């Protein structure tokens, strides 16, 4: 297949003069340094360029549509993965080396072993009555002010529309949640085992504190730093790596957009998506660093000294 986007668009048998004219129009015949400067200036102005394969579509405008779709999907997946993963990890730690621990870790092993696309296909086959594509039923009229369909429906009291959005979210979110659920459960188990072996927890139990109080009041808060760290990392992975899930479920998000750009050799789209992905990771890491400073007094004391 041709690697030149103009040849990919017009075909290998296109008139050479037409190809050269289009290359000159796009500025792709300019030296690399000149193209880099032009791209940097446009980026500083907030201009991510136009899509070549989509007949001059504004990439910035398109990203404002696809990024919220991926964010809703990723957040929905984390809302499934975080509580279940923490609960499974706590159960595995409390009943270490027993059948609850074995079952919990088997679930975690399956979560990281089964390919997401295979699990997505299995979910579609197991639940044929559930929607398996797009964010809303085709032809559904709506007047959303933002691209956060589900959140806006809930906040504006459109419960019928919110129910439709949720039905379309369930299967892709469940498929996408498997890997973070597995990772969070393992990290929670290991952190809880380390905390449960502490002397102050044995002292609390000896003084008559209930197991429920010891877990929620003492053990879980002290084990939460590692869990929060992995939750932030997994959220970044979900928001930027949901390519397979979005492809299987025809979800119009960032993953589907970057795949279409790669398939059509649309370099402007790929560059813009790469910038957005990098910005998401940098932002999440910054938020995590600030959150650690707030939650861990040892880090604050270390910075003062």
From TrEMBL:
<dbReference type="GO" id="GO:0071916">
    <property type="term" value="F:dipeptide transmembrane transporter activity"/>
</dbReference>
<keyword id="KW-0813">Transport</keyword>
<dbReference type="GO" id="GO:0005886">
    <property type="term" value="C:plasma membrane"/>
</dbReference>
<feature type="transmembrane region" description="Helical">
    <location>
        <begin position="73"/>
        <end position="95"/>
    </location>
</feature>
<keyword id="KW-0997">Cell inner membrane</keyword>
<keyword id="KW-0812">Transmembrane</keyword>
<comment type="similarity">
    <text>Belongs to the binding-protein-dependent transport system permease family.</text>
</comment>
<dbReference type="Pfam" id="PF00528">
    <property type="entry name" value="BPD_transp_1"/>
</dbReference>
<protein>
    <submittedName>
        <fullName>ABC transporter permease</fullName>
    </submittedName>
</protein>
<feature type="transmembrane region" description="Helical">
    <location>
        <begin position="227"/>
        <end position="249"/>
    </location>
</feature>
<dbReference type="InterPro" id="IPR035906">
    <property type="entry name" value="MetI-like_sf"/>
</dbReference>
<keyword id="KW-1133">Transmembrane helix</keyword>
<keyword id="KW-1003">Cell membrane</keyword>
<feature type="domain" description="ABC transmembrane type-1">
    <location>
        <begin position="67"/>
        <end position="288"/>
    </location>
</feature>
<feature type="transmembrane region" description="Helical">
    <location>
        <begin position="269"/>
        <end position="295"/>
    </location>
</feature>
<keyword id="KW-0472">Membrane</keyword>
<feature type="transmembrane region" description="Helical">
    <location>
        <begin position="102"/>
        <end position="127"/>
    </location>
</feature>
<dbReference type="InterPro" id="IPR000515">
    <property type="entry name" value="MetI-like"/>
</dbReference>
């Amino acid at each position: 297949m041709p690697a030149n986007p103009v040849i990919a668009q017009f075909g290998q048998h296109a008139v050479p003069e037409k190809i050269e004219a289009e290359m000159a129009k796009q500025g792709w015949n300019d030296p690399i340094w000149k193209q880099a400067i032009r791209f940097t200036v446009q980026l500083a102005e907030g201009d991510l360029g136009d899509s070549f394969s989509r007949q001059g579509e504004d990439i910035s405008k398109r990203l404002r549509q696809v990024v919220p779709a991926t964010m809703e999907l990723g957040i929905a997946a984390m809302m499934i993965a975080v509580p279940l993963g923490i609960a499974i990890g706590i159960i595995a730690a409390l009943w270490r080396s027993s059948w609850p621990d074995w079952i919990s870790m088997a679930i975690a092993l399956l979560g990281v072993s089964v390919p997401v696309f295979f699990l997505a296909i299995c979910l579609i086959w197991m639940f044929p009555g559930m929607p398996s594509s797009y964010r809303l039923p085709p032809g559904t009229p709506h007047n959303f002010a933002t691209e956060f369909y589900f959140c806006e429906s809930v906040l504006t009291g459109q419960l019928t529309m919110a129910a439709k959005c949720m039905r379309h979210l369930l299967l892709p979110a469940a498929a996408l949640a498997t890997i973070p659920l597995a990772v969070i459960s393992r990290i929670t188990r290991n952190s809880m085992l380390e905390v449960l072996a502490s002397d102050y927890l044995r002292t609390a139990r000896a003084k008559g504190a209930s197991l429920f109080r010891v877990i929620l009041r003492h053990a879980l808060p002290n084990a939460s730093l590692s869990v929060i760290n992995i939750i932030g990392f997994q959220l970044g992975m979900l928001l930027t790596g949901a390519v397979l899930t979005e492809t299987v479920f025809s979800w119009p998000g960032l993953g589907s957009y970057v795949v279409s750009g790669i398939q059509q050799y649309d370099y402007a789209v790929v560059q813009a998506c790469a910038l957005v992905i990098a910005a998401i990771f940098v932002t999440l890491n910054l938020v995590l660093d600030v959150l650690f400073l707030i939650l861990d007094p040892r880090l604050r004391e270390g910075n003062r000294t």
